[in-house]
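TEACHING EXERCISE
Course module: macromolecular assemblies
Task: Read the component lines below, then compare them to the predicted structure of the full complex.
Student: A.B.
Group: 4
Components provided:
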Amino acid sequence: MTVADALLLALGAIAVGSGTLVVTSSQIVRAGLYLVISLGAMAGLYLVLGAELVAWVQVLVYVGAVVVLLLFAVMLTRAPIGPSADLDRPAWPALIVGGGVGLGLAALFVDAFRWVRYGMPAPGTTERMGAELFGNWVLPFEVLSILLLSALVGAIILSRPDIGAPKPEAAPKPAAPKPEAAPKPEAQPQPQPQPQPQPQPQPQPQPQPEAASKPAAVKQQLEKQPEPENQEDGT
Amino acid sequence: MHAVIPYVTAALLFGLGVYGVLRRRNAILVLMAVELMLNAVNLLLVTADVTRNDAYRGGAFALFVIVLAAAEVGVGLAIILQYYRMRAAVHIDDVRLDGENAG
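Instructor-supplied answer key:
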């Protein structure tokens, strides 16, 4: 029983005890604060086990960000501050399954590792962790960065305020073809100046009938239309 | 050190997380229990670094799991808040997946 064992036992007891309070507390805010204690004790366990970078990332990301997000959600959903009775459903199935999983895994580990002593790990350095991350595991690292980006973009899209009202989409659809029909006469007069200079440079014989036939008919129609308007205006 | 101590701690925390996911009705508390389970797996990975003595491999995976947990919490809370905005409730017993009870 060394100092490391005593530290592991104490921090493990804190983590398991406050974890029990997380899943049994009848007040949501207190459950979140017990979660802080549990995650902090686990960061201490990582420190004892020699994974310093993981410990500090745990403190930064979990205790600093995730728990704050959870407490924000508690506030935004107007959860009851005091004790509330409707947080739980009947305990027996959860107790059987959860206790079975926890105690079964614990028995498995006890049987596998017994009371074997292991040498204390060397204190971790961020340099070696960085070499491991960007050497052996650089592809999962990049994939995870893309996953994090897409997850946060998805969270933003999910948070749009207009996502729950699909009904007013029926109104704009009949109005949509009208602006599509309107730009066509605007787009067709634009090739009109192009066929006129094209007969002067001769080396493009093939595009000329295609380009000239359609705009020519359009040109005639368009030229006929403004002429009576001008005549009407003139008269 | 005796590696069985953190291993048993991780197993008990994972059991607590399973218990919380099955027991709780409030969706935010379910997310907290999921965080407990993910942390138990992290502790398992970090402890495996010590016992297997190929250093930093489990630590790297623990960092990956932390990133995944951050993404999971972001998307999960967005879903919870959107559901609260539509139905004014966060009880996951009441979530109906057929979409018939709009409003």
